[in-house]
């Protein structure tokens, strides 16, 4: 390798002479050089070079900097003049300026808001120090040839990974998902969400501790709590060492307090972290598992050791679970892999065992919308500029005639567009500030303008300049080139090309608008479609109350009698999970004639005998449970999907085996939608569980105001559970929330679509005003010759309608195809009918006609005497 | 009006320039300052002070000899003017008079400069 010459850094020397006063150049240059070579004799090259840089940078002082020459002051006056002329031009053409500024500021507002949203989405999990080397172990399981990705794993897997694959990981941490638990301190009982995790949890995620250390969880009787939980329970007192109780049975002492985990994290609602060992010791079901490798109920987080890649380690641990399974479970061929933390939030969808995106789709979608909306606003600006160019041409001619250089004209036009852009930007900031609260409400975010983030501002200003240059490029570069002679003669006409480009831009704008209308319409259709889906029971007036203890269950008959007599409720039933979710599923189901290779996964719900009557399910065949028939304690009611799945012609009376115990099917119900309303219903069976608890479902009397009934329910609940928090949900609200994500996206898309349409309309509004003005004389002459107002209106409007029709022709097939692709994401989806694109096209045509008519009708109505007399 | 008051740093730089005599250029003064006080300053900081002193008329500067290690570039030598010397003397006298008015300390300290 060729050695670099041992001289002071060239860049630094160059910089020095850029700013240094000329009369100092020689002696300062000499001093620094002498210093460099003297240093170089005793120290390393790097030291000497660093010192040189240091000395150069510290010469940037007022005394040493070259004084500006006289010229810039002249420039300053010129710029001032540009600025004034810009303002004057705006004042002269108020409509034109208003359209430009309104369009650009709305476009920028949309872009800024989308930018903030994207920034927020991208920031998920990034605040954990080691996020790039943390992952979660997932598994791909094969059910009858179909691959599903499960986020939970069986608990013994943690030890297995530690023992056999330990050198790949810094930590392997088993944890539960965040769940609500009753946390008690003295007489304060509140429902708090938290997890049970192995001791390394804090170390793996480098939890920022306010008090205590990560490793406190080594002690199975300790707990870490979040700062906000500490504040709720202990106010300003010292939380360390305080004894609290989780779910009444687990007593722990507070060993550490961590800073609340930020909103942008999977763990943001984790307010306590209790030791996994405690859960293991206290809850019999983990310890006494039939086969601990069977239930997939836990989350497993790993930290990769240095120099390990997710892919390589995923490949290594692929069969770690399979090797430990019984032959029956091994049928599912679980293949483990690690999902990196940086992708948890945005890349969470898996299909057939492969990553297929997730929220990132929306990030891209909105990013594209943002770019298009800004582009559309820029197009308006350019369109109106070119349209007005004939008028401006005269100005150019005069300026040139009195001695203006072309470069000065270029600068003038650019400063005009920059002034417009900066004005719009300021207005946009104001609009963003005003609309953020509403946006946050719709988007479920807490975005705010980062006023203090300087780099972001630099980007924003930089973008403004780019937009300004882009939007101002036509008048600046083209108009400034016209010769004075040409322009002043009056015969100047914008070139054919410019009117073409104008048309193309209008077509692009409307293509985007129509596409967005179709897209939004399809989103709402899809939501409506899923909402109209029969859900199999009556949600109105149904309240699910979390029982939190067995007290309510023991006295359920007393509760029912009391509330029924006061006519507050019709009935109350009990179940293991709320109707809007199903929490339990099993693969240990067999029946006669079952294909031995078939691996199954049935949802199961333990209920009280009157469950069906209370929630109002529909019996399709057979009968409902009856508490007077003793054998019903060993009976199933299955849903239609399950009956079909098992292939029974007459399901009622058939026997199925659950953990090899024969159980008779007594009834079949119509499917109940209990998970996602966009997905097919799972095969489900219901059985009478004498200990059915967890949830009490109250059917409120229809003639009672819900609030009063709820108050009565709470009073009764408190009678049996004086120290438990009363948590309830209206089932219809819980069900409606399943559409939250889709509705949010639909609303956002709707808002952005209307703004895009608004911008496009501003554009043609401006253009039509210009055309109407330009054709004043023509219209006058036509009217003199007997044209009616309608004929004139039709003639002028046709030009625009043609463009919009072309846009529709492009947009309809494209949008139709995109929308059809999108709906297939959902198993239960609507079909994109031809009606939607046609509807969108008609809407946009109507809007166009109304917008254009504002000016054309005025022009058509003008008395020809007036219009022909102008000038 | 020309600023005539002498700052603390200015006073030290002026003195060092005097000590170095015909070797008094920005780099050397900086190095001498480091040697005498143990404090590191940039050449630019010293030069800007010298510039100020020159404007106040306490020093004057002229380009001097060039050496090879400087890439053949000449040095700017600063020499103290008569006004500069008087201002230095005034500064010292002023401090002396202050010390004398402070007998308790003056007795114990045994002026060592």
Automatic annotation (TrEMBL), chain A:
Show the Pfam families listed in the entry: FtsX, MacB_PCD
Q: Where in the cell is it found?
A: Cell membrane
Which parts pass through the membrane?
Answer: 97-118, 359-382, 413-436, 456-479, 500-524, 748-772, 800-819, 834-857
* InterPro entries hit by this protein: ABC3_permease_C, MacB_PCD, Macrolide_Exporter_MacB, Permease_put_prefix
Q: In what residue span(s) does the ABC3 transporter permease C-terminal domain sit?
A: 368-482, 751-856
Membrane topology listed for this record: Multi-pass membrane protein
Q: Where is the MacB-like periplasmic core domain?
A: 98-314, 512-679
Keywords of the record: Cell membrane, Membrane, Transmembrane, Transmembrane helix
In Swiss-Prot or TrEMBL terms, this protein is called: ABC transporter permease
Query: What is the native source organism of this protein?
Result: Ohtaekwangia kribbensis
UniProtKB/TrEMBL annotation, chain B:
**InterPro entries for this protein:** Tscrpt_reg_PadR_N (IPR005149), WH-like_DNA-bd_sf (IPR036388), WH_DNA-bd_sf (IPR036390)
State the superkingdom.
Bacteria
Any Pfam family from its record, for instance, is PadR
Domain Transcription regulator PadR N-terminal residue range list:
20-89
What's the protein name?
PadR family transcriptional regulator
Q: Which organism is it from?
A: Ohtaekwangia kribbensis
Top-level taxonomy? Bacteria, Pseudomonadati, Bacteroidota, Cytophagia, Cytophagales
């Amino acid at each position: 390798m060729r050695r670099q010459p041992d001289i002071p850094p060239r860049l630094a020397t160059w910089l020095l002479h850029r700013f240094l006063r000329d009369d100092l150049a020689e002696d300062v240059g000499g001093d620094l050089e002498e210093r460099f070579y003297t240093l170089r004799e005793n120290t390393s090259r790097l030291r000497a070079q660093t010192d040189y840089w240091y000395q150069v940078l510290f010469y940037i002082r007022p005394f040493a900097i070259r004084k500006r020459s006289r010229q810039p002051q002249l420039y300053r006056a010129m710029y001032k003049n540009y600025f004034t002329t810009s303002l004057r031009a705006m004042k002269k053409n108020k409509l034109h300026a208003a359209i430009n500024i309104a369009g650009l500021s709305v476009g920028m507002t949309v872009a800024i808001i989308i930018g903030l949203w994207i920034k927020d989405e991208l920031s998920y999990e990034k605040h954990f120090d080691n996020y790039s080397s943390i992952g979660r172990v997932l598994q791909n399981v094969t059910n009858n040839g179909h691959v599903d990705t499960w986020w939970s794993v069986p608990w013994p897997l943690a030890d297995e990974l530690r023992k056999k694959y330990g050198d790949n990981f810094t930590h392997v941490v088993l944890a539960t998902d965040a769940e609500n638990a009753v946390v008690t301190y003295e007489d304060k009982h509140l429902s708090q969400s938290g997890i049970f995790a192995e001791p390394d949890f804090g170390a793996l995620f480098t939890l920022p501790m306010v008090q205590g250390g990560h490793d406190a969880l080594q002690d199975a009787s300790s707990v870490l709590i979040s700062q906000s939980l500490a504040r709720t329970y202990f106010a300003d007192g010292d939380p360390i060492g305080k004894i609290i109780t989780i779910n009444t049975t687990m007593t722990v002492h507070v060993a550490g307090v961590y800073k609340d985990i930020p909103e942008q994290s999977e763990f943001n609602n984790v307010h306590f972290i209790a030791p996994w060992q405690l859960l293991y010791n206290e809850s019999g079901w983990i310890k006494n598992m039939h086969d601990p490798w069977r239930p997939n109920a836990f989350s497993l987080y790993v930290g990769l050791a240095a120099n390990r890649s997710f892919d390589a380690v995923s490949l290594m641990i692929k069969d770690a679970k399979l090797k430990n399974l019984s032959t029956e479970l091994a049928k599912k061929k679980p293949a483990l892999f690690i999902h990196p933390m940086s992708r948890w939030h945005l890349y969470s969808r898996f299909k057939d065992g492969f990553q297929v995106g997730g929220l990132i789709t929306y990030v891209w979608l909105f990013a594209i919308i943002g770019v298009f909306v800004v582009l559309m606003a820029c197009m308006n600006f350019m369109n109106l500029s070119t349209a007005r160019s004939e008028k401006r041409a005269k100005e150019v001619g005069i300026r040139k005639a009195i001695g203006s250089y072309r470069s000065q004209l270029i600068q003038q036009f650019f400063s005009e567009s920059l002034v417009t852009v900066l004005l719009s930007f300021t207005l946009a900031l104001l609009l963003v500030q005003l609309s953020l609260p509403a946006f946050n409400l719709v988007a479920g975010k807490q975005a705010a303008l980062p006023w203090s983030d300087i780099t972001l501002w630099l980007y924003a200003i930089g973008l403004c300049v780019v937009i300004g240059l882009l939007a101002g490029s036509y008048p600046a570069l083209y108009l400034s080139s016209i010769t004075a002679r040409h322009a002043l003669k009056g015969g100047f006409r914008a070139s054919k090309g410019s009117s073409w480009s104008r048309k193309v831009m209008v077509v692009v704008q409307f293509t985007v608008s129509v596409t967005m209308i179709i897209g939004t319409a399809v989103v709402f259709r899809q939501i409506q479609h899923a909402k109209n889906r029969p859900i199999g029971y009556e949600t109105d007036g149904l309240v699910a109350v979390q029982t939190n203890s067995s007290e309510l269950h023991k006295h359920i008959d007393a509760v029912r009698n009391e509330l029924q007599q006061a006519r507050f409720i019709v009935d109350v039933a009990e179940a293991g999970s709320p109707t809007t979710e199903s929490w339990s599923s099993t693969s240990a189901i067999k029946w006669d004639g079952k294909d031995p290779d078939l691996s199954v996964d049935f949802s199961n719900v333990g209920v009280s005998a009157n469950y069906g009557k209370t929630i109002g399910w529909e019996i399709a065949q057979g009968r409902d449970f009856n508490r007077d028939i003793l054998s019903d304690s060993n009976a199933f009611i299955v849903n239609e999907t399950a009956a079909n799945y098992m292939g029974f012609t007459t399901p009622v009376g058939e026997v199925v085996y659950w953990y090899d115990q024969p159980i008779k099917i007594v009834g079949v119900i119509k499917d109940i939608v209990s998970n996602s309303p966009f997905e097919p219903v799972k095969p489900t069976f219901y059985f009478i569980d004498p200990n059915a608890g967890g949830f009490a479902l109250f059917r409120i009397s229809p003639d009672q105001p819900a609030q009063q009934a709820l108050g009565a329910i709470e009073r009764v609940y408190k009678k049996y559970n004086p120290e438990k928090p009363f948590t309830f949900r209206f089932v219809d609200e819980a069900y409606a929330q399943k559409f939250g994500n889709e509705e949010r996206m639909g609303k956002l898309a709707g808002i952005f679509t209307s703004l895009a349409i608004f911008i496009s309309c501003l554009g043609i509004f401006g253009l039509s005003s210009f055309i109407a003005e330009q054709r004043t004389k023509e219209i006058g002459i036509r009217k003199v010759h007997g044209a009616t107002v309608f004929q004139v209106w039709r003639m002028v409007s046709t030009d625009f309608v043609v463009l919009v029709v072309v846009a529709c022709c492009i947009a309809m097939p494209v949008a139709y195809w995109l929308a059809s692709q999108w709906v297939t994401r959902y198993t239960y989806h609507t079909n994109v009918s031809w009606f939607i694109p046609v509807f969108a096209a008609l809407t946009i045509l109507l809007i166009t006609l109304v917008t254009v008519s504002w000016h054309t009708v005025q022009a058509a109505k003008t008395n020809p005497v007036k219009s022909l007399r102008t000038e | 009006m020309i600023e005539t008051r002498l700052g603390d740093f200015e006073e030290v730089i002026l003195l060092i320039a005097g000590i170095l005599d015909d070797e008094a250029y920005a780099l050397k003064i900086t190095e001498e300052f480091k040697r005498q006080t143990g404090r590191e300053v940039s050449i630019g900081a010293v030069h800007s002070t010298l510039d100020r002193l020159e404007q106040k008329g306490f020093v004057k500067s002229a380009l001097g000899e060039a050496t090879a290690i400087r890439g053949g570039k000449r040095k700017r030598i600063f020499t103290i003017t008569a006004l500069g010397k008087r201002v230095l003397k005034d500064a010292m006298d002023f401090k002396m008079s202050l010390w004398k008015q402070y007998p308790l300390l003056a007795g114990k300290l045994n002026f060592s400069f």
